[in-house]
Amino acid sequence: MLVDMHLHEKTFSLDSFLSLDEIVSIAKARGLDAICITDHDSMGLRQYCEEYSRKTGFPIFVGVEFFSLQGDITAWGIDTFPDHRVDAQEFIDHVNRNQGFCVSCHPFRKNMRGLEDKLREVKGLHGVEVLNGSTPMDLNRTALQYCRELGLKAIGASDAHVPQNVAKYVTWLPEKVDTLPDFIAQLHQCETRPAIWNGSSYDVLTTF
Asked: pLDDT tens digits, residue range 26-59?
């Protein structure tokens, strides 16, 4: 299964230029099996995505990109989240109480929105974006080093806000799933690998 785990749709991520139609069209053209919508501090698109997914038969898993006091964290499996910025550990604990799954986004991008060395301090984080489509490759490699050191799941994600970046980087999982609970279960239980679009297909990687 190939899934882009970090995408922004323009209705609730005001810095995005992407409609859900565009995202799904590009994802299908590249052979993805699912996408994730992770808008900034919002899950407002959830109902629309559920309806769109049923209509098209294409899995769409809605999470959130939450801007904690230490940096951005994507999460799935929660129905609510704080309405203001809180410590990363508080948010991670909230996700774990709800049996969700959470990932440190672009931890070393130079935009003051990554956990950086706080990765070594927080407890209960599940994964790290080792390939983020808006992060230079040398900083992605730093994320990979931390991911390995900490024994976390390696995640690939485009973080797309414009069409040309959709599905640039994705995550490989061993089995196809259609529902959010099954997706979260597989993230917890199975190996994940990052993958890069090479112009015609995906290269699934263990290192880069």
From this structure: 999 999 999 999 999 999 999 999 999 999 999 9
Element spanning 137, H or E: helix 137-150
Distance CA 92, CA 77 (A): 12
Report the domain count for the chain: 1
pLDDT bin (cut points 50, 70, 90) of residue 142 is very high
Decide if 173 contacts 192 (C-beta within 8 A).
yes
Its pTM stands at: 0.97
CATH of the domain at 188: 3.20.20.140
Q: Any bridge partners for residue 165, and if so which?
A: none
For residue 4, the cross-strand partners are: 35
Residue 131 and residue 136: Cα distance in Å, rounded? 9
pLDDT per position as a tens digit, 192-201:
999 999 999 9
Give the structural domain span for 88: 2-204
**CA atoms of 62 and 171, how far apart (whole Å):** 16
Rounded to 5 degrees, what angle do the CA atoms 78, 83, 86 make? 85
